[in-house]
């Protein structure tokens, strides 16, 4: 016995390999014989018993292994939009591609052991034709590309294994190209494992964690503490940064405690960085799907914009930066849930008698005495006093800073970005928002505490014989 709460049966010699397996499962909740690579599944199987125990105790997750498939069933505390499915060329899935992917899974769930691409397309087209505004016409290039992206996503993960032909040929000419697939039923079943009967779901919030032990007054103190500790660990491994002001107080208490950094280091081998405003897990081993700072023009521009915003906030020689209250997390979650619920197919809904909607009442416009949230025009309120106010950077300041970055670093950014600096600013700000560095509001962004981490960053251009690249 190791004397630790987690990885108890793991020796010191095996600990690094075990931590690698934990990071692997957390990053790739679906692992098959070839996804994300051929070595992944043997690594998970090697530590299967310890992984099942630790992932359940630490995070409330369930690890399932069936055949040549490992699936991590996560407990979700909130909706997220920062990790979309992506096609092979890196394009994020849109609603059409998600719809085709779902219909493909439905068809494959009732298919045999083999299916041709044209048969799959015909079945999906028949189902899509019954959905208003969707449809699938293989003769339309946009429909065909979206369908092939959905099929390619399944191919990458091993749900479809090419026996003959190629989807590329079919995408070029559905009349002559063809592909034959073996259907991996264990992967298909692992991909679609809803926690609720979907015809009974009245709101997307029904798919989130409903244990409620941390907030349930009838639960025991130990159960509530255990639930809060699990929620704290989940937040740290799932989010780029966790701000204490945006989580429940029991969860914040665990984030402040000394046990959480030790537990996560034991499990993942990564260290927790803690500041007054919140905590983050320092990724030194490519644990995250997307890293910040990263490579590429957008990531480099984002770091340089963060430096500009940090310098502006603390510059004593310029006019004081306006500060506003940040968007209320609960209101943001409510708005996102309502946007998703607007697409629920009410025609197939079968409500349960004892079920009630999980959404809170709609927020009302604040009256004269309301000093929180945006005003009637959607603009943040200008209130310098009070805790929690964040510095406000206007769109004009961000665009001016982007223009200066392009002039300062010249060839470090390609001609396309010089021709369209507004797109560079938009994508860089979106990247900063995904990592919790800024909050996008009408007219600009609110600068969050994470930006201060990059205040003293110095950027240089490394000269090469070829096109120079910017390093921050």
Q: What's this model, at a glance?
A:
The protein has 472 residues and is α+β, with helices and mostly antiparallel strands. Helix content is 40%, strand content 12%. It has 4 domains: 1-74; 95-191, Arc Repressor Mutant, subunit A (Orthogonal Bundle); 221-281, no CATH class; 297-325 and 380-471, no CATH class.
Q: What structural class do the secondary elements suggest?
A: alpha+beta
Mean pLDDT: 84
**What is the general shape?**
globular
Count of helical segments?
16
Total count of strands: 15
Instruction: Characterize the biggest β-sheet.
Output: 4 strands, antiparallel
Please describe the structure with a list of short key phrases separated by commas or semicolons:
472 residues, single chain, DUF2398 family protein, alpha+beta, Arc Repressor Mutant, subunit A, CHP02678, four-stranded antiparallel beta sheet
């Amino acid at each position: 016995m190791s004397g630790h709460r987690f990885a108890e049966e793991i020796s010191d010699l095996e600990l690094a390999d075990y931590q690698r397996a934990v990071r692997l499962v957390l990053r790739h909740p679906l692992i098959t014989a070839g996804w994300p690579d051929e070595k992944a599944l043997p690594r998970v199987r090697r530590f299967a018993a310890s992984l099942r125990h630790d992932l359940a105790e630490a995070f409330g997750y369930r690890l399932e292994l069936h055949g040549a498939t490992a699936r991590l069933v996560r407990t979700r505390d909130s909706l997220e939009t920062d990790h979309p499915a992506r096609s092979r060329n890196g394009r994020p899935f849109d609603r059409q591609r998600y719809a085709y992917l779902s219909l493909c899974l439905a068809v494959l769930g009732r298919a045999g052991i083999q299916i041709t691409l044209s048969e799959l397309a015909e079945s999906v087209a028949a189902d899509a034709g019954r959905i208003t505004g969707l449809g699938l016409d293989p003769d339309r290039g946009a429909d065909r590309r979206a369908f092939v992206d959905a099929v390619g996503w399944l191919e990458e993960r091993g749900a479809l294994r090419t026996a003959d032909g190629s989807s590329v040929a079919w995408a070029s000419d559905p009349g002559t190209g063809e592909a034959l697939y073996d259907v991996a039923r264990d992967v298909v079943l692992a991909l679609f494992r809803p926690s609720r009967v979907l015809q009974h779901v009245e709101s997307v919030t029904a798919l989130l964690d409903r244990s409620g032990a941390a907030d349930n007054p009838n639960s025991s103190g130990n159960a509530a503490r255990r639930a809060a500790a699990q929620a704290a660990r989940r937040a740290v491994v799932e989010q780029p940064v966790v701000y204490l002001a945006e989580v429940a107080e029991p969860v914040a208490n665990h984030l402040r405690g000394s046990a959480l950094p030790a537990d996560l280091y034991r499990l993942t081998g990564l260290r927790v960085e803690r500041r007054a405003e919140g905590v983050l897990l320092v990724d030194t081993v490519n644990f995250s799907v997307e890293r910040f700072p990263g490579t590429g023009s957008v990531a480099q521009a984002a770091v340089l914009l963060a430096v500009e915003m940090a310098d502006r906030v603390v510059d004593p020689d310029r006019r004081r930066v306006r500060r506003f209250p940040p968007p209320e997390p609960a209101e943001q979650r409510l708005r996102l849930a309502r946007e998703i619920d607007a697409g629920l197919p009410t025609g197939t809904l079968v409500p349960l008698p004892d079920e009630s909607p999980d959404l809170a009442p709609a927020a009302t416009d604040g009256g004269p005495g309301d000093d929180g949230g945006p005003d009637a025009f959607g603009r943040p309120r200008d209130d310098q006093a009070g805790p929690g106010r964040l510095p406000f950077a206007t769109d004009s300041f961000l665009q001016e800073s982007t223009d200066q970055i392009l002039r300062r670093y010249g060839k470090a950014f390609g001609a396309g970005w010089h021709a369209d600096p507004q797109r560079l600013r938009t994508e860089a700000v979106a990247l900063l928002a995904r990592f919790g560095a800024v909050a996008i509001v009408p007219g600009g962004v609110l600068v969050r505490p994470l930006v201060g981490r990059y205040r003293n960053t110095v950027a240089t251009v490394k000269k090469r014989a070829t096109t120079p690249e910017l390093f921050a």
